[in-house]
Amino acid sequence: MSDQSHYPNSRIPKPFIAFALLAIVSLVLAGCNSEAKDEPTPDRPVLTIKVQYEPQTPDRSFVGTIRPRIESDLGFRVAGKVAKRVVEVGQLVEAGQPLALLDEADLKLQAEQAEAELRAATGVLAQATASERRSSELKAKGWSTDAQLDQARAAGDEARGRVARAERSVELTRNNLSYATLTADARGVVTSTSAEPGQVVAAGQGVVRLARIAEKEAVVAIPETLVSRAQGGEARVSLWSDPDKTYTAKLRELAPAADAATRTYLAKFSIPDATDDVKLGMTATLILSEPEAERVTRVPLSAIYNQGTGPAVFVADEKTGRIELKPVEVKAYEARDAVITGGVKDGENVVALGVHKLDTAQKVRVVSHFSF
Known about the structure:
The protein is 27% helix and 35% strand. The protein has four helices and 23 strands. It has helices spanning 14-38, 105-141, 146-178, 227-232; strands at 44-50, 54-55, 60-68, 71-75, 80-85, 92-93, 98-102, 181-183, 188-193, 200-201, 206-212, 216-223, 234-239, 242-254, 264-271, 283-289, 295-300, 312-316, 323-327, 329-333, 337-342, 349-351, 364-369. Strand 18 and strand 19 (323-327) form a beta hairpin.
């Protein structure tokens, strides 16, 4: 007999083999599914735009120059020869500080002459007063006539007038002598000089130009379309040397007519709180804003999410990766963006694209900031 006759039941049925294979495949697939469940879901990359509120009407800026409000030519009040000039261009001077000197020789002689005339007039007055007194006594005793008394009184009045005139002459010559020293009438900077030692100058002729630094202003050219904003808007000034610092400005003077060539109006804005860092001649930027302008921010139209409950946006947190759906107040829809007046804060990151695929339960990863 053959070997098969000894093991008639050793043959495995085909249905049993198929069932075993199916069980093995199921176990393999179950293991794969458990491994897939253990893997974390990757964060979804998103593009965001940073919220930045600004006036709905954009600010306008103009380039200007820092100038003094008052700049005047100072000169001697008397004529004479310049003996010395004690300041140079660009020098800072204080009020009362000497700027230039005149030769005082002639002025001293005039003062001495006036004093001599005063002494002479005083002597004549004493003599006339004594003569008037004697004539009055003689008239009282009947030894003099009325005409002689009147003549003595007239001589006394004339002598008193001469003394008064001599006293005024002395005061004037003393003043003229003090005018020989040209002094600064305020704290300022010397911007130019027009006289040198040895030069003979007339009374009132400009010798030193002084720019007062107590009041400074920014001078700019305003186009005619923005004249109303310059008159009623808010203005601030920043220097090119320090753009991060701004100063409040106020319109002080506006030209009554436009420049024939540029068609702009010359405007002068005073800077009340200007410090010593604001130097004359510096280049400045004047910024004009609309008064009480509404502040808005703009986001792309693709950032607006609306499922029938009103417009909203997704705000992403860069650190945690969380997103939050916030309702917003949309003032207007424009061609490419939406104008938002509230609902989100300055500096928040609003998802700009693909908002219809987002869910607040999933985490995101900010890959870049969107600009438009």
